[in-house]
Amino acid sequence: MNKHAVIRKLPDGTCTRQQILHAARIVEPSFKETQLRNLMGTLRTSRLIVRVGRNQYQKVGKEPKKSVFSGVYSHAAQQVIEHMQKQFPLLSYRVWELSWLNEFFNHQLAHNKIFVEVERDGCDFVFSSLVEKFPGRVLLRPKAQELLQYGTDDGIIIDRLVSEAPKSDGEPYQVPLEKLIVDLFANKNLMLSKGDYPPALETMFATYRIDQVSMLRYARRRNKVKDVFGFIRDKTSIELLVQG
Predict the structure, then answer these.
(1) pTM of the model
(2) Is 86 in the same domain as 19?
(3) What is the Cα–Cα distance from 118 to 162, expressed in whole angstroms?
(4) Tens digits of per-residue pLDDT, 166-203?
């Protein structure tokens, strides 16, 4: 099978598995549906197509040089992760930092916060353990006013991990960009100006591959579909591939 010939037969914009099967049969009429899985793997491994949503693919030429976002952890966050791995090896949790957003926002965030999101039954245990390890730096599910009053630089904020939160392809505690985008609208403790959101979101989508289906699923779980997708639709030039 000539994979480049298949790519040339695909429509511009997004395409489905069925359309890729149709293109393959144009190139090779005897091509069987049972061969599609191997072909899809070849096209993705060869970086000829990328997945942009559920059963939605795009030619790489239409989405050039996009990588998967991977936040770089500070030394302070690495210390938290090492403690969590040692003390809670079986617990499901995520760790991310407010400073990661400096890549996208024009107004740089002066003070960093480390968010540790833990499955519901583990919050109190993690709080007690981290308070002992990092005294004076840990807050459990604080309100915005408490964060302003007691928050410190590299402060650790413990919150509940929302079920169905998008997962990273890396370590289980890592956080993908799809989650951060929804959290911009759902996490009241970020205290960021909405006026900075349009260029920040456009930079995210222009720079990194984003699974909009995963983002939509998480937005639904957090009851923020209209907030997230309505804002993107009305305030940015981002092309939405799913209907929120």
Answers:
(1) 0.78
(2) no
(3) 8
(4) 989 889 999 999 999 999 999 988 888 999 999 999 99
